[in-house]
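PROTEIN FOLDING TASK:
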Amino acid sequence: MQAARDRQKSYADLKRKLMEFQVKDKVMLKVSPWKGVVRFGKRGKLNPRYVGPFKVLERVGDVA
């Protein structure tokens, strides 16, 4: 069981990108498919994938 978990973790870590944002950087936020339908009233391919840009005002923590 542990070997399978380690193997899956190594596969997932290959696709993960380390991203750090500093104060005053501009970022785009990914919209979940359900919130996109409710918020923008569009479905499928016409649904916006990202909203923004937003400016980073404060850095709260490493994982926040």
